[in-house]
Hints:
By secondary structure, the protein is of the alpha+beta class.
Amino acid sequence: MSLEEIINHRRSVRFYDPHKEIDQEIVKGCIRLATLAPNSSNMQLWEFYHITHQGTMKKISRACLDQESATTAKQMVVFVTRQDLYRDHAKRMTDLETANVEKNSPPEKHEKRIKRWKLYYTFVMPFLYSRFFGIIGFIRKLLMIPVGIFRPTVYQVSEGDMRVVVHKTCALAAQTFMLAMAENGYDTCPMEGFDSFRVKNILKLPFGAEINMVISCGIRMDKGVWGERMRLPFEDVYRRI
């Protein structure tokens, strides 16, 4: 299928065919493609939990309020944000960018460029992603006010703002996964109606992890798609400046 055909084919499926299985390796491959999604500063603060065990599937389904998208699913993928891993990921990116500079830049520019990347990933990223009951985020916002007087700056730096950034990044990966699944003829449904505490407990996630969304997977039945796709008129949402 072309990209346009894939996008038109993808629907949120509410009921999957109980007689049609899906290949775990193909789903795993689609998750691998999801890791190529764009993400803020390449921090990749995400994890993907591929649920195939029937016992765990039932538990996750129950945590998803036993909606049919969950109870009829053949597999599930839970998209998880891991803002708590920012220090480790920043260290990895420092090492990666240092190697990139040494490999691809003229020797006379190594020191300056490596210094810039180290500053970005050893100071800026930890400063932006650190959390402490909203206090650090409040300090960041205060610091941005005088900076913004002299030049354009980013004001959305509170702890809540950075949490949104991490979830947006994870959602981009989720969308990439669903399109990859559609390209393979598999169907999905992103579910936000779930008990996050129960899902975290089932997956044994640490306190700092958060559930972005649960995506059920299978092959649709006709009744699994609720009617024709409806979108607001394009003219209502399109603005050309």
